[in-house]
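Technical appendix A lists one of the benchmark inputs used to test multi-chain prediction within the project. The record comprises two sequence entries:
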Amino acid sequence: MSSLARPLYNTFVKRNFTFLGVIFASAFAFEIAFDITTDRIWDNINKGRQWKDIRSRYVQSGDGDEE
Amino acid sequence: MASLTSTSRTLLRALPRTSLSSLPVRALSTSSSKCGPGAADTSSFDSPFRGFGGSKTAKIPDFSHYKSNKSQTSNQMFQYFMVGTMGALTAAGAKNTVQDFLVNMSASADVLAMAKVEVDLSAIPEGKNVIIKWRGKPVFIRHRTPDEIKEAESVKVESLRDPQKDEDRVKKPEWLVMIGVCTHLGCVPIGEAGDFGGWFCPCHGSHYDISGRIRKGPAPLNLEIPEYDFPEETSLVIG
């Protein structure tokens, strides 16, 4: 544990701007992951009730001139 | 001076040990006799609790049970990890809050859908007016003939009330697009009427020419030009 902590500390925490950059980068990554996860949960709960699920029943030709 | 301060320090350190009654005597005696090698037997790193060492009421607790047995770096790393995670969550939350407010303030989809109007220009013959509704207002579209374009361009701009060149008012000279609301009090002018061959407002008698510029009457400004574009040769998008 200690052998792992020292290089981690030196790489990410020692200089403040690196630490801040790591924080913002992880915030960005976290946001994407969070959005994807919650969207997936939502789609899973509302399966078969959303327009993208029933679209094929009403739109046959795909890229027709109406909708 | 240095010996005096060290003496007083020794004295202070000795204070708890001495009984209060004998203090003045000893203080006097130490100041004279103990400033020599006798002061060296108490080091400056002594525990401040040493004087109470024998006392039963002031036991110093043993903290070793609570002490982390990991190294300092891994403890530090854990703390910084927690701080950083907290900061990242806060940053994501703050960003989302701001974004939600901005999204809430921007136009919604139904407004955006109403905001644009597409017109098929091939249905409008030369020399004809078309009035369409856009954002609740009438919009005049005139397919101008070459004669009308020449007429609009030949007007001396300096003599006008609201001087504006015809080329500043149109994107394509044959298509004149403007909002059909009189700049005086907001009536809708009548097309192909008035003294200048353009529009005439029946409410108070403002005359507009074939470029929609005010020429006569009470209106102060030319007819307003909306934002429009020609995405294709024969279609016009207003908005």
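The domain at 117-238 of chain B is CATH 2.102.10.10 (Rieske Iron-sulfur Protein). The first strand of chain B starts at residue 117 and ends at 120. Comparable benchmark entries are summarised in Table A2.
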